DNA sequence: GTAGGGTTAG
């Protein structure tokens, strides 16, 4: 795609960014002028009378790009030229076929030929740039509105806002939205509000989205509709605030805004994430009484929840027949979830069976389906099968993505094949696939765990020098690697300086650091860290407790170990197998001091029932 | 007459 003028883009963007809040500027005033006045400034385009010949053309019948292009050429040869409306219909047809670049090229030709482009045509061009993730070029077209004296309207701005959101530029979208309202450039409608609300939810600002919903209610000009409620309810569910979502749900019903299948799906999804099956059943019944039929999304949500709880067979045996009975066809997503569900349980034959059966059902596996299967083979360390699938992807017209590579990378490191892993990483980068922080985490952790600490540190240095963002998991892997290599001081140094990197240690980081301290017998420091992590708002988990208890037991500090075991128990954690093993070993040791033996025996009741093998 | 269309599942 050839870039079009960058200057108009910059001008339009700066208009959007830099308007003073209190007073309008010339350009904002320009927007408020009536079209008749603006026409005065516009270029003198040739007037084109509508051509009756083209009234007969059904633009919806255009099926291929070539049809549209030859029709365009034919239209250009007509005298008089067909009307702008007919040209716009043609552009719509091309755009609906998702040939965005072609649509833009036609738009440019129209401009060059002096066809009087209007706000409809220009909005189509903006929309095409947005779909190509080039919203800045969309703003360039906004600039040409001004030059041509065409007045952008709510549809134009709606398209631009959507384009910003698509490029994750939500703060800019919000600013533009605020300016439009403040300067009264256009009256936002439900779509504009919907775009902003969804952008806010998608970027973790659900509370702001909620506020906007409230504002819509208070202002009363554009009342929130089902879609707006759905968006906020879904955002709350994704933030694990299901009860708030349920409250908002009751509220919409009270206000006579009908929930639909999307509302129910978000709520069901949120409830299932918390294992609240009873409430899900209640909602499903309620849907029935409202005559809302569950669609394939709802079923997929249920299938996914079952699979995540290791019940792929139940999903296959119960839910699939139920779907067929209700004439809801399982789709690629359904099958992908089931493939993944069997993969997670290591049932690769079942997973493969499902994958292969998709062809018979005319379902085409996509990259997510392939990645699920690749990941399954990797988890089972069936590397030949995984590599075979990776090779197969381009033949199926699918593009390998970072997930395809990362699964295999992790499995290669787990199998100790560091060389092959590094080669794969090179292949991946050569293919232009950008690593994520997870990729780097797997790389550094893999190197550390395979005794290549020096290499890991050198890669870390290289990544840092390139300014690549690395998350806490990467540093946790490095701290662990250093500790296990006996470099406790270096590990502590990194741990201590995490906050200077803007990173906050999580429960794993603390546990890894404590484990290092315990190994070196620096138990008091480990104990202090246990207190400190809670002060910092990070709750220890069962691994943390087991780590310290084991450290204490190994250094014969039974009394402290016992205190901690009791604390664990009070918090609902239990000793793990390796901790129990240490206690068993201590009990069976021959040369045991009777007083110590007594102490160890007193530890026993702190274990829960069912943790046998102690007797 | 012609444009944008916001929400759910892997």
Automatic annotation (TrEMBL):
Give yes or no: UniProt keyword Repeat. yes
Q: Name one GO cellular component term.
A: mitochondrion
* GO biological process annotation, one example: RNA processing
**Record key words, sorted:** Repeat
InterPro entries reported for this sequence = Mito_RNA_Proc_CCM1, PPR_rpt, TPR-like_helical_dom_sf
The keyword Repeat is assigned to this record: yes
Q: Which GO terms describe its molecular function?
A: mRNA binding
Q: Which PROSITE patterns match?
A: PPR
Sequence ranges of the PPR repeats = 189-223, 225-259, 260-294, 295-330, 331-365, 366-400, 401-435, 436-470, 471-505, 506-540, 541-575
SUPFAM superfamilies membership: TPR-like
NCBIfam families in the cross-refs: PPR
| Similarity comment text for this entry | Belongs to the PPR family. P subfamily.
The name under which this protein is listed is: Mitochondrial PPR protein
Q: What is the lineage of its organism?
A: Eukaryota, Viridiplantae, Streptophyta, Embryophyta, Tracheophyta
